[in-house]
Design goal:
Length: 163
């Protein structure tokens, strides 16, 4: 039989595969990549918050035990330390601009009572400008208040981690 008489049809090439709908792998990537980014961001925030507080506790112990520092230097160091920790664990826009009474009220929010606005924590408000040194008792009380404040920051960090 001659080839021209066979009932064959031309080869039909299938249509090109469209981009929509994407395969299941693309859907999984579309879900997993944003979830991973959010998770890593949360982990970063938790670790930096935790690291800032741990470092602050170590620095507070150094200030407390350093007998070479005079009281005015200790006061200034405590003021800078508490400010740095506050900026590290809270949004910078809320904390960085606080001064005077507002700064002390912000510190009081973390602890019971008002040891910063009414107690010897008031020394932190004028620490950079102070020329007369505080007494040993005032420095001791202020260091205790700063320790309590740091403990409260640790508790807040744990609460934020759970929620």
């Amino acid at each position: 039989m001659p080839t021209t008489q066979l009932p064959l049809k031309d080869i039909h090439i299938p249509e090109a595969i469209g981009w929509w709908p994407p395969a299941i792998g693309w859907w999984l990537l579309a879900i997993l990549i944003p979830a991973l980014i959010v998770l890593l961001y949360g982990l970063f925030k938790f670790l930096t918050r935790k690291t800032a507080i741990k470092t602050a506790k170590k620095n507070l112990d150094d200030i407390k035990q350093n007998l070479a520092l005079d009281n005015i230097t200790k006061l200034r160091e405590l003021s800078m330390l508490i400010r740095r920790v506050s900026i590290s664990v809270n949004p910078r826009t809320e904390v960085a601009s606080l001064t005077g009474r507002q700064w002390l009220e912000f510190l009081d929010k973390s602890v019971t009572g008002a040891p910063f606005s009414e107690g010897c924590g008031q020394l932190l408000a004028d620490a950079p400008y102070r020329n007369t040194p505080p007494t040993e008792q005032e420095i001791s009380q202020l260091i205790d208040q700063c320790e309590d404040w740091l403990k409260a920051q640790i508790k807040q960090a744990k609460r934020k981690q759970k929620s």
